[in-house]
Amino acid sequence: MLNNDPLWYKDAVFYEIPVKAFADSNGDGIGDVQGLIGKLEYLKWLGVDCLWLLPFYPSPMRDDGYDVSDFYNVAEHFGTKEDMRKLLDEAHSLGIRVIVDLVLNHTSDQHAWFQESRRSPESPMHHYYVWSDTDRKYEKARIIFIDTEKSNWTWDPEAKAFYWHRFFSHQPDLNYDNPAVREAMLHVMSFWLDQGLDGFRCDAVPYLLEREGTICENLPETHDYLKEIRRRIDEAYQGRILLAEANQWPTDVRPYFGDGDEFHMAFHFPLMPRLYMGLRSELCDPIIDMFTHTPDIPDNCQWCLFLRNHDELTLEMCSGEERDYMYYTYARDPKMRRNIGIARRLAPLLDNDRRKIELLNSMVFTMPGSPIIYYGDEIGMGDDIRLKDRDGVRTPMQWTMGQNAGFSACDPAQLYLPVVSDSVYGCQSINVKSQREMPHSLLQWMKRMIEVRKRFPAFGRGSISFLRPTNGKVLAYVRRHEDTALLIVHNLAASAQSVELDLKEFAGVRPIELLGEARFASITGSPYVLTLAPYGYYWLNLTPDRSGPESYGIEQTAL
Ligand code: TEU
Ligand code: CA
User: Fold this and answer.
1) How confident is the model over 257-285, as pLDDT tens digits?
2) Are 125 and 196 contained in the same domain?
3) What does the buried/exposed string (b/e) look like for 353-385 if buried means 16 or more CB atoms within 10 Å of the residue's CB?
4) Which residue out of 156, 203, 377, 384 is catalytically annotated?
5) What is the CATH number of the domain that holds 159?
6) What tens digit of pLDDT does each residue of 435-447 get?
7) Global pTM?
8) Which candidate in 156, 245, 311, 312 is catalytic?
9) Shared-domain flag, residues 264 and 321
10) Among the four residues 151, 166, 204, 249, which has the most C-beta atoms within 10 Å?
11) Do 222 and 299 fall into the same domain?
């Protein structure tokens, strides 16, 4: 049932799931793999093709599982390796693939490797990590978790030395100058691929290696190792994919695709904040500029486009004034800020304005790349900025109006985090069950959008050319693939807008609007006038209609 096209990931719609937040099957207040298995029907119904599961390995859970203490197991509270195999079998039988986080850069300080490494300089594992007798090395490397860390070095009283960590001080970096480490992580990868996983979202890959005098990001030797990982995939695991988390400028992300011999996919971090900027400023330039600054990528590669994820809405790829603008417009309350970003979910960021939520999703679903939905954003879930770190955007999925939003049968006090309970975003108003029953809910619209997107490979595989109408509030581009041409138009303004588009190359075509299948007026050699509602958008098929006599697209719609 799986799409066995080697480039399946260029047509796929992805969906990000923290296992702990999705569904609790055994009533302990924590989501688990069995619970996720019970929700595969929903994910199939929604139309997603590939799940990305956040780390489910044994962990002290001080960084929500990104502090791994055992790479070869499933954390007890999530289930067992057998549960994982069952999940993969059931997902695959439904045509859904599953990729997981591979946390390459570091381990938990509770990992046996670190405990052995710190024991003695003579320990065979001592050089699994980056030790130093001074904390003055690699001083050009920035601190990433600025809310909590003052240095990338921490003194270890047992080893009587400093150890290097790019994230929390309880996450010592692995030493990729050590061939044993490089081999050990290749072994971890093979182990999970042998379990049947369809690939990995590789965590924090820019930071794998360190070199004096550099910022210790995106080093050539890092790419050498990442190419080694891809070689293993190509040798023995055809069809599995590697998705890079490289939160860098497009020119610095481009090398992670290599010549089509490194990552299959990479998140487009710089584009993401500019979608929000474009919306707020009502100007297309921040968005178009990002595309004109994004180098082409090899044909077997793909961008992964997103609006939000389990981290803060990162502003690391924004300039000072851009950051100020984003904080001013989207996070006036300092409690919403985390590190260099904003820890809010999509709906609250957009004032719970259904028009804006649809508009931004429409962009991510029609621009070049594969879209990924963050769990709960498809129903417009809210957040809880009172919670620590990034927990506010990681609350239990809201399935019903019932106790614990149908996430768990446990006593509410046992939940790993409280369910969002305010009057706007509480489960009485926001839940899957109600929205599946309402034909015009956000969830039904998301499902419809996914369906339409999957009918046109142009979205995932086509080229993009921007039209530059005089009205700068309207973002218009044409997606082309083989003989298909799709015109996508977005009104970034809070007011209705009229726009004149130069479509003379399509003269004679009568566009069909894809979401409603109505036929628009014929295109002529004159400027084509469109009027858009506030935050309105159109997906128009400009492919010359080869069907029979003049007829309205609607007539072909099954009644
Ligand atoms: O984040 C890595 C990273 O580079 C972060 O700065 C990220 O770019 C930023 O938080 C905005 O997305 C990854 C995981 O996504 C994060 O949850 C972990 O805490 C971190 O690695 C350490 O494992
Ligand atoms: Ca590192």
Assistant:
1) 999 999 999 999 999 999 999 999 999 99
2) no
3) eeebbbbbbbbbbbbbbbbbbbbbbbbbbbbbb
4) 203
5) 3.90.400.10
6) 999 999 999 999 9
7) 0.96
8) 245
9) no
10) 166
11) yes
